């Protein structure tokens, strides 16, 4: 059995951080050919062609006689959760190959923290395409940091592709005093051509519902899996407070099945956002979840689902349902 989660304190080697910026296991084989647009939503086929064209143009960077003298450009995939934005972003990275980097928003902010702004910018500027998944501005520091980083990367000629559930000129709304940083937010928005993708959550096509909670014995049985871990829900939520979200990928490394004992609704938004970050990393790794206690679709209470972070919470609920569905 994989060692317990609680108490893990992973460390990341700063020198290896750039090498780790690749699509996660869940999207490691994503290509344009494996993206299946829903015929009822023409925006999906249009987005596929837009991203494919963008990736082709990005590959021209650095080829003698083909590189344009103009600055790099940005493409921003906007849409609800489960419409294939991350799949298309990973497919773009695959098409460009080793001249592309792929990471979540928090991974890039951590890269800057670990390497310093100038070195991180210089490392990323060597790539033709910088892919930023789950783009969001949750605090003023991130707003200033990412606005400057992306501006300097595009000035250096890098192309940037990003995904988000929020249009670029609405970033930060409902989370902090976004009006005080409107100039930086508008600068970020000005870097991108926006492509909107419509459609239902593909994970829930066929009306998949949150599964009935498992029994305590069913959860404990996960401990018998070769890569299974069983942990108390409250114990896990408390432990997340001691691990930076940028390390959650390393925190769950090697886990393929996770048993959660006595799930209860969350009552603290700061802890809820850490759970969202953990769910994203578990989903990236195709972890199977078996949980007792409250149903997983009750983890985030109604007041959170109506607040400024509601899109994050709904994405997490969608992914939790997918991971907990019978296989």
TrEMBL record:
Keywords: ATP-binding, Cell cycle, Cell division, Nucleotide-binding. It comes from the Bacteria. The keyword Cell division applies. One of its GO terms (biological process) is cell division. One of its GO terms (molecular function) is ATP binding. Gene3D superfamilies: P-loop containing nucleotide triphosphate hydrolases (3.40.50.300). The keyword Cell division applies. PANTHER family: AFG1-LIKE ATPASE, ATPASE N2B. This is Cell division protein ZapE. The gene is zapE.
């Amino acid at each position: 059995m994989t060692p317990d989660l609680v108490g893990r304190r992973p460390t990341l080697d700063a020198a290896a951080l750039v090498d780790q910026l690749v699509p996660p296991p869940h999207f490691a084989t994503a290509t344009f050919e494996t993206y299946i647009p829903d015929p009822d939503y023409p925006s999906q086929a249009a987005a596929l062609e837009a991203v494919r064209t963008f990736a082709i143009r990005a590959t021209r960077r650095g080829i003698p006689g083909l590189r344009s003298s103009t600055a790099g450009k940005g493409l921003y995939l906007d849409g609800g959760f489960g419409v294939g934005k991350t799949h298309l972003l990973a497919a773009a990275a695959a098409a460009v190959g080793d001249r592309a980097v792929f990471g979540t928003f928090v991974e890039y902010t951590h890269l800057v923290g670990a390497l310093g702004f100038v070195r991180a910018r210089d490392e990323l500027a060597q790539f033709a395409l910088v892919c930023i998944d789950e783009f969001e501005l949750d605090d003023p520091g991130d707003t200033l940091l990412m606005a400057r980083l992306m501006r300097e990367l595009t000035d250096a000629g890098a192309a940037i592709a990003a995904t988000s559930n929020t249009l670029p000129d609405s970033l930060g709304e409902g989370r902090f005093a976004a009006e005080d940083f409107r100039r930086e937010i508008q600068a970020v928005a000005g870097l991108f051509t926006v492509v909107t993708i419509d459609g239902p959550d593909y994970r829930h096509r066929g009306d998949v519902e949150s599964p009935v909670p498992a029994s305590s014995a069913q959860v404990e049985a996960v401990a018998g899996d070769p890569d299974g871990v069983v942990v108390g829900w409250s114990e896990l939520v408390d432990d997340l407070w001691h691990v930076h979200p940028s390390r959650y990928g390393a925190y769950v490394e090697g886990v393929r099945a996770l048993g959660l004992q006595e799930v209860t609704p969350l009552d603290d938004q700061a802890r809820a956002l850490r759970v969202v970050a953990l769910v994203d990393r578990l989903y990236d790794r195709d972890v199977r979840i078996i949980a007792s206690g409250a149903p997983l679709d009750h983890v985030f209470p109604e007041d959170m689902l109506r607040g400024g972070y509601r899109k994050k919470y709904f994405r997490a609920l969608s992914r939790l349902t997918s991971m907990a569905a019978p296989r």
